[in-house]
Amino acid sequence: MNVTKIGYARVSTEDQNLNLQNDALTKAWCGEIYKEYASGKSTLARPELANCLRALRAGDTLTVWRLDRLGRSLSDLVAIVNDLEKRGIAFESLSERIDTSSASGKLIVHVFASMAEFERNLIRERTQAGLAAARARGRKGGRKPSLSDDQIKQIKAMLKDPGNKVVDIAKQYGVCRATIFNAVGPIKPERSVS
Fold first, then answer.
1. Which residues, other chains included, contact 34 with Cβ-Cβ below 8 Å and sequence gap of 6+?
2. Where in the numbering of this chain does the Resolvase/invertase-type recombinase catalytic domain appear (predicted)?
């Protein structure tokens, strides 16, 4: 089996340059370096990362200059590294000196995974507490209704006239037909809904 070190370098904009990362990855013996000019917000918005991950084979090592070059959030980073581990691929971050081919590197990644889970639980708890506090003040969560109670009454009155079409009423109130149906309930079949 041919073991390869593959590098991944990323900067957020084309105004920045990859020289520092490229030099560090070359010095670390990366045979190939995938270079990306993209925000790290979403893995989907990083086509070179996708290409890099596809190129890696069992026994290879993915090397980055710093952890934040691979994932913007801790949970994103942990998900990528866990996927690599399942595929038999090691991960190395040069600045933080993390190498999952060693026991201590694997331990650090597991600590990161625990921290990511802890962070998700904190967010969930804060969200639940905020919703409970809002409910205690009489507020409901969710999106503001598209139609007020008065508008729904007006629409129901308009629908009593078979000459009024649902599509025209929807346009008048700036909503779609589905919003009208959701607001007023079923409309008699003899009425024209188009």
1. 6, 7, 8, 9, 48, 49, 51, 52, 55
2. 4-138
